[in-house]
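Hi everyone, sorry if this is the wrong subforum. Our group has a chain we'd like a structural model of before ordering constructs, and none of us has done structure prediction before. Sequence below.
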Amino acid sequence: MAKPGERTAANRLLAVLDAFDLRSPSLSLTDISRRADLPLATAHRLVGTLTGWGALERDESGSYHIGLRLWELAALAPRGLGLRQAAMPFLEDLYEATHENVHLAVRDGLEVVYTERISGRSAVGVRSQVGARWPLHATGVGLALLAHCDAGFQERVCGGTLTSFTPHTVTAPARLRRMLAEVRRTGCAVSDRQITDDALSVAAPVQGPRGDVVAAVSVVVHVKDAHTPALIPAVRLAARGISRALGWQPGSAPGA
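Answer:
Right subforum, don't worry. Here is the predicted structure as tokens:
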């Protein structure tokens, strides 16, 4: 049994994997040791174990990357590849209808994680990408998901740190609560220039077989070209289609 404050072998292995992120997908052994807060010799041993199993891969320059074996395991996650496969026809339809950025996302704790993105060449630039994490309060998909969490969780978010990204980011708890109530009333979330000054997102919740909200779909457009009343029905239709593909039926509790 590990002593209080002592890191277990499993924790050290996870620390090595956690050293990688979207900003640092390629790391040297020294980088891994530093970012995982491990002695170089320990990092070397753990990296060797993970590379042998296929969780990491080493390129010709000696740098390490996340390995294909982890991708194979991640594909088994029900909120990963399975959700993406069910959603793709409807995401593609939404893209064809708008030729704008289309997103699919799920909630993980206090953050939203993007699981799919379709981008047009002439669409507004966005900072989201597959695997990226953003706070729930500042994105369209995040608001659509947060609005359908239980009241206690919503209060935890509203009472916590609401990071500001632009002058338009909602950081006042009272205003955020009103926005969440409006999302529940209309079935759609609008995030206006909260992440970047030039983008507006319209999002809608995706329901699972039991009626609970399991994901959110959105379209992101340039704020100057945004015609929100026209986007809302298209996004809601895509969300409804994905929900049906996942097994949801009208009248399913609790999100009917």
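For your construct planning: The longest helix spans residues 81-98. The beta strands are 56-58, 64-66, 101-108, 111-118, 133-135, 189-192, 199-207, 213-222.
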